[in-house]
Write a structure and sequence with these properties.
The chain is built from 18 helices and no strands. It is mainly alpha-helical. Helix 4 runs antiparallel to helix 11. The longest helix has 52 residues. It starts with a helix and ends with a helix.
C-alpha cells in the first residue's frame, strides 16, 4: 500500500515540479540585506529612474523638501509591501508563481502567473531594444574614429523595420549576451546585481566630480534655491506630497508583485526586512546624485555657451550636449550595465519563473530563457514600425492592472486565511484530495477577487474622470481584492 501511494504521489507531482521552482536548498539561501540593497539600487538605477527623480526635483518647480519627503514615504510604503508579499517566498523558498498556487489553485496559478510573464516578455524585448541603441552608439563611435567613410557604405544605409545593419546586429547581440549571462543561476545573478549597483554608484560619483570641478558652489547654491520651509504643511504641499508618493510607488509597483522571486534566496526574515527598508537609503542617495548631476551639467553647458531650451534630465541628452567622446563612451558603459541589470530584475527572471510554472515538465532555465529571447526579438523588432505607434503600452498597462489585485489576494490568503502556513507537499500535488486542488485546480474565490479588483484598478486607466488616481491603481486594486478575498474565503 505504501509503495502504491508513493508512486501515485510521484506521478501526481511530476507535472507540477521543476528543479528551478521547488523550495531553495537552505545552503543556497545566502542573500543578505546588503544584497537586497543592491537589488533595489538596480531597480532605480535606470534612465527612466534618473529622469523621473531629477524631473520631480527640478522640472516641475516643486519644493525639494516635499519631494524628499515623498521619496522617503514612497520608499517606506514599497518596502513594507515588498516585505509582506515576499515573506512567504523567503520562508518556503518558493518563487512568486508557485506561491500563487495557494491563492488560485494549481491550475489557476499557471495562467495568473503568466499575466506577469506576458508583461515581462514584452518589456524585456522593448528594454533590450533600447539597450541595443547604446551598443549601436558605441559601434558607430568606434567606426567613425577608425574611418568615418565606412558609415557611408550602402549596406549601412539600408533600413529594415526601422533599423539598419548596425542596429540589428546590436539588438541581436544584446539579446544573446543577456541570455548567456542571465541563465547562469541565482549566485551569478547576485554577483551581477551587486557589481552593477556599486559600479553605477561609483560612476555617478565620478561623473558628478567631473561636472562639479570648480562649480561646486554654484551647484549647491542652485540646489538651495529649491529648498523652502515656508508653508511646508499647506494644503497644496500636502496634495503634491500625496501625488508624488503615488507616482514613485507606481514606478516600483511592477517589481513588488514578484519580489518573492528574489526574497526566496534571503537568509532569514530579519535580513529580508532590513534589505527592503534599504530602498529608502537608495532613494535618498540616488535623488541627490541625479539632482546634482543635472544642475552641474546645466551650469557647465551655460559656461560653454551651449544652447539648451530646457533643463536636461535624461543622461543621454546631457552627454550629447557636452559633446565629449571619452565621457560619452564611459557614460554609455554605465548605462548598459544599469539597463541590463534592471532588465534582469524587472523582466527576465519574473518571466522565466512564470514560464517554468506554466510548463514545469517541458521547460528548464535554458529553454525558457531561449523562449524569452525569441519572443523578445519579435517584440523589440516590431517596436519601431508597429508597437510604438499602435497603443500597445495601453494594453500592457491594462494587463498590469491585475498586479495590485493579485498582490491583495496573496496577502489575504497567506496572512489571514492560511495563518502563514503552507502545506509544502500539496503545493506540488495535482491529486484531487490535495489542499490546493480546489475546484478542478482553480480557486474560484481568488479568481473572482482579482476580477473585482481589476475592474477598480483598470478604471483609473480607461475612465478619463478617474485618471487622476492612476498612480494609485495598484493600491486600489490590492485593497479591493484583499477585502473581497477575505470575505469570500474566511467562510
Amino acid at each position: 500500500m505504501f509503495i502504491i501511494s508513493e508512486v501515485s504521489q510521484e506521478k501526481a507531482n511530476i507535472h507540477l515540479t521543476n528543479w528551478d521552482i521547488v523550495g531553495v536548498n537552505p545552503n543556497d539561501k545566502n542573500w543578505s540585506s546588503g544584497d537586497i540593497f543592491c537589488f533595489w539600487a538596480n531597480n532605480i538605477q535606470s534612465l527612466i529612474g534618473f529622469s523621473l527623480i531629477a524631473s520631480l526635483y527640478l522640472v516641475y518647480d516643486l519644493n525639494i523638501i516635499i519631494v524628499l519627503a515623498a521619496c522617503v514615504s514612497a520608499g517606506f510604503l514599497v518596502a513594507i509591501f515588498s516585505y509582506i508579499i515576499g515573506q512567504p517566498s523567503q520562508k518556503y523558498g518558493l518563487p512568486f508563481p508557485v506561491i500563487l498556487r495557494s491563492s488560485f489553485g494549481i491550475a489557476g496559478a499557471r495562467y495568473i502567473g503568466m499575466l506577469r510573464g506576458i508583461v515581462g516578455m514584452f518589456m524585456f524585448g522593448i528594454q533590450t531594444f533600447f539597450i541595443s541603441k547604446s551598443i549601436g552608439y558605441l559601434i558607430r563611435i568606434f567606426i567613425f574614429n577608425y574611418n568615418d567613410a565606412i558609415l557611408e557604405n550602402e549596406m549601412f544605409l539600408l533600413f529594415i523595420m526601422g533599423m539598419d545593419l548596425i542596429d540589428w546586429f546590436s539588438f541581436i547581440f544584446a539579446l544573446v549576451i543577456q541570455f548567456y549571462l542571465f541563465k547562469q543561476g541565482q549566485n551569478f545573478t547576485k554577483y551581477i546585481l551587486n557589481f552593477s549597483a556599486w559600479f553605477v554608484y561609483i560612476g555617478l560619483a565620478v561623473f558628478l566630480i567631473i561636472l562639479a570641478g570648480e562649480n561646486s558652489k554654484e551647484i549647491i547654491s542652485a540646489f538651495a534655491l529649491s529648498v523652502s520651509t515656508e508653508n511646508i504643511v499647506s494644503k497644496d504641499n500636502l496634495l503634491t506630497l500625496i501625488s508624488l508618493i503615488g507616482t514613485l510607488f507606481a514606478f516600483f509597483s511592477i517589481v513588488i508583485l514578484n519580489i518573492g522571486d528574489f526574497s526566496r534566496y534571503v537568509k532569514n526574515s530579519s535580513e529580508n526586512f532590513k534589505g527592503n527598508l534599504s530602498l529608502i537609503i537608495n532613494l535618498i542617495i540616488f535623488s541627490f546624485a541625479s539632482v546634482f548631476i543635472v544642475i552641474g551639467a546645466d551650469i557647465v553647458m551655460a559656461k560653454k555657451m551651449l544652447e539648451v531650451d530646457q533643463l536636461l534630465t535624461n543622461p543621454t541628452d546631457i552627454i550629447g550636449k557636452i559633446d565629449n567622446s571619452f565621457l560619452t563612451v564611459i557614460a554609455i558603459f554605465f548605462i548598459l550595465v544599469a539597463s541590463g541589470s534592471s532588465n534582469l530584475i524587472a523582466n527576465y527572471i519574473p518571466t522565466q519563473n512564470a514560464l517554468l510554472n506554466f510548463s514545469p515538465k517541458n521547460l528548464d532555465k535554458s529553454s525558457s530563457g531561449l523562449l524569452i529571447v525569441i519572443i523578445g526579438l519579435v517584440f523589440g523588432g516590431l517596436w519601431l514600425p508597429i508597437l510604438s505607434q499602435s497603443g500597445a503600452l495601453s494594453i500592457i498597462d491594462t494587463i498590469g492592472s491585475f498586479f495590485g489585485p493579485i498582490a491583495g489576494v496573496i496577502i489575504a490568503d497567506y496572512y489571514l486565511i492560511k495563518n502563514k502556513e503552507y502545506i509544502s507537499k500539496d503545493i506540488f500535488s495535482d491529486l484531487k484530495k490535495g489542499t490546493y486542488f480546489y475546484s478542478g485546480g482553480w480557486q474560484i474565490k481568488g479568481l473572482y477577487s482579482i476580477i473585482i479588483g481589476f475592474i477598480f484598478a483598470a478604471s483609473t486607466i480607461w475612465n478619463a474622470d478617474l485618471r487622476f488616481l492612476q498612480s494609485f491603481s495598484w493600491l486600489i486594486g490590492a485593497f479591493i481584492s484583499y477585502i473581497t478575498y477575505y470575505l469570500l474565503a474566511s467562510d
